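Dear Dr. H.,

I hope your travels went smoothly. While you were away I took the liberty of generating a structure for the chain from your last submission, since the lab meeting agenda had it listed for discussion. I wanted you to have the full record in hand beforehand rather than looking at slides cold. The sequence, exactly as received, is reproduced here:
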Amino acid sequence: MADTYSLIGAFYSKPSPALPPFFLKTPKLPLHFPSKSMAAHCHCSSNPRPSQPSLLVFSGGTAFNGVVEELKKLTVRVAHVLPVSDDGGSTAEIVRVLGGPAVGDIRSRCLRLADESTSEALAVRRLLGHRLPINPQQAKSEWYKILEGEHSLWEGVSKPYRETIGAFLAYFQNEILRRPNESFCFSNGSIGNFFFAGARIFFQSLDAAIFLFSRVSDIPAESLVLPVISTNDRLTLGCELWDGTIIRGQNEISHPTNVIGPVDKGRSSVPALPSRIKRVFYMSREGTNSLHEVFPTVNQAVLDQLSNVDCIVYAMGSLFTSLCPSLVLLGIGEIISSRSCPKVLLLNGSHDRETSGFSASSFVTAITDALNRTYGNSHNCLRNLFMSLCSQVSISTPFWCPKMVKFP
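The corresponding predicted structure, in token form, is as follows:
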């Protein structure tokens, strides 16, 4: 794994309004929110580290997490761009009952970036990273113990943090109770997701929720966690297969299953797709075919970062449901093709349902087609060659022994 980081590193020789109170408690943490785009400005630092390389990483919330810990040893100047279209797992239940974008991938990355230098930091991370039992009754019982402050997970968390975190968990619970016609299932629920959802609904801002989570978990000031689409609306991902089939929903594309709990995306029990994936696109909430395609606006903070970073990384992960949902947005391909900085693709060490039978060149072609929006609306298509979009490929084995392929 170290070779991958060495490769990336070798490329470079007015006071704000206070957090408002709400009906339960006023969080006691000294949180102050900037008046402009939080995604772009919430991680300002008076002591930037320009000697460290700056990266922008496109990824999902799972596969690249194992790299994050090691990457911090090279640089903390990383903008993590994540999709908000996941409709599976714990996130799915939140979206079903409360609506809004999926926050699971963002929460997962924030936790990986969280401070671990003190016992309290570790306690906060343990609390926000906790998942409830799979059994629905046990999950609900444990959730109420956490909500009432009686769970052992609160040990080591000081009063200011307890009040801040507990207040937003209570706000989340209140939002559920306000929807008596929807029975919320806490099975396998993520406490971090509940906190995140409570903050997003309270502030009516995904950016504000990320800012709050970042402050609570003490993420380095130079590390950005950016939703590729900054929205409070539910997003639906669709895909078109080469045989013309349209599949609706990220979970149905990637790993359709009725099993509650962690999912092995590569497991053989997941049925194969009837045909390879041609493209992914966003659909209206009630959409069922490509005529219902919609074109959400990319987060401006992502475009700003793309224009200035020293290196762009397409990380390992689910190719069509983790990477491509970010790459197909208008403006992404245009900026990437205009940059002369290194652009690195880190290939997966194994195949999954989306990439069965793929070669390395198949991955490169899929990335290029997504950035060019080759198979979408003809008015939005680009004609960039892959060399302007990807300059290096890291072919990684499951044991993290990368072989570097450099294009001329």
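Two observations you may find useful: The chain has a mean pLDDT of 82. The radius of gyration is 21 Å.

With kind regards,
E. W.
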